[in-house]
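In response to reviewer comment 3 from the previous cycle, which asked for concrete evidence that the modeling workflow produces usable outputs, we include below a single protein chain processed end to end. The sequence was submitted unchanged, and the resulting C-alpha coordinates are shown without manual editing.
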Amino acid sequence: MRFSQVVVFDAADLDAESTFWAGILDGQVRRDDDWHMISVDGDARIGVQLAPNHVPPDWPDGVPQQQIHLDLWVDDFPAAHARVMELGARVLAEAGEHNFQVYADPAGHPFCLCWGTD
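The workflow returned the following C-alpha coordinates.
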Protein backbone atom coordinates (compact mmCIF):
# COMPACT_ATOMS: atom_id res chain seq x y z
CA MET A 1 0.00 0.00 0.00
CA ARG A 2 1.28 3.47 -0.90
CA PHE A 3 0.08 6.77 0.51
CA SER A 4 0.59 10.13 -1.20
CA GLN A 5 0.79 13.37 0.72
CA VAL A 6 -1.03 16.54 -0.27
CA VAL A 7 -1.45 19.55 2.02
CA VAL A 8 -4.81 21.29 1.54
CA PHE A 9 -5.48 24.95 2.33
CA ASP A 10 -8.95 26.44 2.75
CA ALA A 11 -9.43 29.77 0.99
CA ALA A 12 -12.22 32.12 -0.02
CA ASP A 13 -10.26 33.15 -3.15
CA LEU A 14 -9.16 29.96 -4.92
CA ASP A 15 -7.31 31.76 -7.72
CA ALA A 16 -5.20 33.96 -5.42
CA GLU A 17 -4.27 31.05 -3.16
CA SER A 18 -3.51 28.49 -5.88
CA THR A 19 -1.61 31.00 -8.04
CA PHE A 20 0.51 31.93 -5.01
CA TRP A 21 1.53 28.34 -4.20
CA ALA A 22 2.01 27.39 -7.86
CA GLY A 23 4.33 30.39 -8.18
CA ILE A 24 6.33 29.41 -5.09
CA LEU A 25 6.71 25.77 -6.18
CA ASP A 26 7.02 26.40 -9.95
CA GLY A 27 3.92 24.26 -10.34
CA GLN A 28 0.81 24.09 -12.47
CA VAL A 29 -2.78 24.60 -11.29
CA ARG A 30 -5.66 22.31 -12.25
CA ARG A 31 -8.87 24.23 -11.58
CA ASP A 32 -12.27 22.77 -10.72
CA ASP A 33 -15.26 24.72 -9.41
CA ASP A 34 -14.46 24.51 -5.70
CA TRP A 35 -11.05 22.81 -5.72
CA HIS A 36 -7.64 23.60 -7.21
CA MET A 37 -4.69 21.19 -7.27
CA ILE A 38 -1.10 22.40 -7.61
CA SER A 39 1.19 19.83 -9.24
CA VAL A 40 4.96 19.94 -9.58
CA ASP A 41 6.55 17.73 -12.23
CA GLY A 42 3.26 15.82 -12.48
CA ASP A 43 3.00 15.13 -8.74
CA ALA A 44 0.14 16.63 -6.70
CA ARG A 45 1.63 18.80 -3.92
CA ILE A 46 -0.94 21.29 -2.59
CA GLY A 47 -4.72 21.43 -2.79
CA VAL A 48 -6.85 24.52 -2.30
CA GLN A 49 -10.44 24.02 -1.23
CA LEU A 50 -13.11 26.70 -1.54
CA ALA A 51 -14.16 27.91 1.90
CA PRO A 52 -16.28 31.06 1.35
CA ASN A 53 -16.36 31.86 5.07
CA HIS A 54 -12.66 31.21 5.67
CA VAL A 55 -11.22 33.28 8.52
CA PRO A 56 -7.41 33.50 8.47
CA PRO A 57 -5.62 32.52 11.67
CA ASP A 58 -4.45 35.44 13.81
CA TRP A 59 -0.78 34.58 14.18
CA PRO A 60 0.84 33.99 16.59
CA ASP A 61 -1.76 33.56 19.32
CA GLY A 62 -4.97 35.32 18.40
CA VAL A 63 -8.39 33.92 17.55
CA PRO A 64 -8.61 31.76 15.56
CA GLN A 65 -5.19 30.35 16.40
CA GLN A 66 -2.76 28.91 13.88
CA GLN A 67 -3.19 25.16 13.59
CA ILE A 68 -0.61 24.27 10.94
CA HIS A 69 2.07 25.99 8.89
CA LEU A 70 4.68 25.08 6.26
CA ASP A 71 8.43 25.55 6.60
CA LEU A 72 10.06 26.16 3.23
CA TRP A 73 13.85 25.66 3.33
CA VAL A 74 15.67 27.93 0.88
CA ASP A 75 19.26 28.31 -0.34
CA ASP A 76 18.96 32.03 -1.10
CA PHE A 77 16.80 33.85 1.45
CA PRO A 78 16.89 37.31 -0.23
CA ALA A 79 15.75 35.83 -3.56
CA ALA A 80 13.09 33.66 -1.88
CA HIS A 81 11.84 36.66 0.13
CA ALA A 82 11.54 38.75 -3.04
CA ARG A 83 9.67 35.92 -4.79
CA VAL A 84 7.09 35.30 -2.07
CA MET A 85 6.46 39.04 -1.67
CA GLU A 86 6.01 39.45 -5.44
CA LEU A 87 3.46 36.61 -5.36
CA GLY A 88 1.39 38.23 -2.59
CA ALA A 89 2.86 37.18 0.76
CA ARG A 90 3.09 39.55 3.69
CA VAL A 91 5.62 39.45 6.51
CA LEU A 92 4.22 38.50 9.91
CA ALA A 93 7.53 38.44 11.84
CA GLU A 94 11.00 39.55 10.78
CA ALA A 95 13.84 37.05 11.18
CA GLY A 96 15.86 39.09 13.66
CA GLU A 97 18.50 36.73 15.02
CA HIS A 98 16.59 33.62 13.91
CA ASN A 99 17.18 31.56 10.76
CA PHE A 100 13.56 31.87 9.67
CA GLN A 101 11.07 34.57 8.80
CA VAL A 102 7.29 34.21 9.14
CA TYR A 103 4.87 35.18 6.36
CA ALA A 104 1.18 34.86 5.51
CA ASP A 105 -0.02 33.63 2.11
CA PRO A 106 -2.89 35.46 0.33
CA ALA A 107 -5.51 33.59 2.41
CA GLY A 108 -3.64 34.42 5.64
CA HIS A 109 -2.10 30.99 6.29
CA PRO A 110 1.28 31.37 8.04
CA PHE A 111 4.43 29.83 6.55
CA CYS A 112 8.14 30.27 7.16
CA LEU A 113 11.15 30.72 4.93
CA CYS A 114 14.03 28.94 6.68
CA TRP A 115 17.73 28.78 5.88
CA GLY A 116 20.79 26.94 7.19
CA THR A 117 23.60 28.25 9.35
CA ASP A 118 26.62 26.77 7.53
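The chain has one domain: 7-114. We consider this sufficient to address the reviewer's concern, and the full set will be provided in the supplementary archive.
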